[in-house]
Design a protein that fits this description.
CATH class of the largest domain: Alpha Beta
Structural class: alpha/beta
CATH architecture of the largest domain: 3-Layer(aba) Sandwich
Shape: globular
Low-confidence stretches: none
Strand content: 15-25%
Strand order of the largest sheet: 3-2-1-4-5-6-7
């Protein structure tokens, strides 16, 4: 199995270099890993004290691990933070993360790369977020007796760790000093294969979302647009979502407005949608001092990075992706006290299922389903308020994972 793993990593590296000839993301992954040894040696030459290493696959895992990172650095301000990513989606956005002393791509997990990376970095402890389980990195960390933690992890019975033939994979998990899981089902699965170093800490995303919701920046144009009205915010939408929202726009109750924030900013698609919506609409990036925000009923957020702040102006949320690969972030609108509506592909998202159980979220199958759910909520302010309070309460009730993790980690690294 070790041979197959090494072969697989080497084959992946060769394919990545080939695809990089024409694919921008692959090119970034190849070029970003170039000369990593020199970059790491240079940074570690200025080492001032103890080092904590956090590894995240991409931007989503970074946001999940961020509350733990920030809590750790708050408690240990004299430590240096090294942050690594596997993919460009995380590195490109967070390469200038202010708390990190160094941000770089994780080298591919060959035996020699792992030996050199850990040898040069020599971290005092290491954190891997959610699904990041790299065989050679874990082996070297374990050999050097470096405390290593898997945080915000979640496990399912279908994973290879829990199959009769999964012994090799189970041995990888035993390299971790401690595993902090999101739920009790994951704990039971791990204990069922003999893992004892497991704690149910919860999902640190709740900490991140709750903290972010309490410190968003004001967006004056959005505030002007929303003033005196109730607002449906459709976040991270894709074309199928936008088709259904056209039906709702055609029956939008008096006193309501729509903010649409597409997941991908495509000018042609946005302009075509505006042409079909049948309501006065504006694009955020084209606003001027004379733009009739008060009279417009639709605002298109055609820029990235402000959706979280936009949510503070909403009363009801529609989250995209449910008619494709899967829904996007439902916790952010919930943290602002908004009931959430989304498409049918939501089964893999525990928070979506739990929000529905709380009566704070709703799944639809088509445009008719959206109309039958959204219109009654829009016309019944008390029902809207009750569902929104449940959404906010769900987020607040699930905070605290970061402090639980840090309590356990501190006992280990200070022992």
């Amino acid at each position: 199995m070790r041979f197959l793993y090494e072969f697989g990593i080497s084959a992946y590296a060769a394919i990545l270099r080939l695809v990089a000839l024409w694919h921008p993301k692959a090119r970034q992954m190849v070029e970003g890993r170039r000369d990593w040894r020199e970059k790491l040696r240079s940074a570690m030459g200025c080492r001032k004290g103890r080092v904590v290493w956090f590894h995240c696959a991409s931007l989503g895992e970074f946001e999940q691990g961020r509350p733990i990172m920030e809590a750790f650095m708050h408690q240990h301000p004299d430590w240096q933070l090294v942050l690594t990513f596997f993919s460009p989606s995380g590195y490109n956005v967070r390469k200038d993360y202010e708390l990190a002393d160094l941000v770089l791509y994780l080298p591919l997990d060959t035996a020699s790369n792992a030996r050199d990376f850990v040898g040069i970095l020599t971290p005092d402890c290491a954190f891997f977020v959610k699904y990041e389980i790299w065989r050679n990195m874990l082996k070297v960390l374990h050999q050097r007796s470096i405390p290593t933690f898997l945080v915000s992890a979640i496990f399912r019975p279908s994973q290879l760790f829990f199959k009769p033939y999964g012994g090799w994979y189970r041995r990888l998990l035993r390299r971790f000093t401690h595993i902090y899981v999101q739920d009790d089902d994951s704990r039971q699965l791990l204990e069922g294969i003999g893992m004892q170093q497991v704690t149910v800490a919860g999902d640190s995303r709740f900490d991140r979302v709750a903290a972010a919701a309490s410190s968003v920046r004001e967006l004056a144009p959005v505030a002007r647009f929303a003033e005196g009205h109730r607002v449906l915010i459709a976040g991270s939408t894709w074309p199928p979502d936008e088709e259904h929202l056209l039906s709702l726009a055609g029956q939008l109750p008096e006193g309501w407005k729509i903010i649409l924030a597409p997941h991908e900013i495509e000018d042609g698609r946005i302009d075509r949608w505006i042409g079909r919506v049948g309501l006065p609409a504006l694009r955020y990036t084209r606003l001027t001092a004379e733009s009739p925000l008060e009279q417009s009923r639709v605002l298109i957020v055609d820029t990235i990075g402000i959706l979280l702040s936009v949510y503070q102006y909403g009363d009801l949320a529609y989250i995209g992706g449910g008619f494709g690969a899967g829904i996007h972030n439902t916790l952010e609108p919930a943290a602002f006290g908004m009931p959430v509506i989304f498409g049918p592909n939501n089964q893999r998202f525990r928070e979506a299922q739990e929000l529905m159980e709380e009566g704070a979220a709703y799944s639809i199958d088509n445009a008719d389903g959206l109309l039958s759910l959204a219109l009654p909520l829009m016309r019944q302010p008390e029902a809207l308020r009750v569902a929104g309070d449940k959404a906010r309460g769900y987020v607040q009730d699930n905070t605290g994972a970061s402090q639980l993790v840090l309590f356990g980690v501190n006992r280990i690294i200070q022992a």
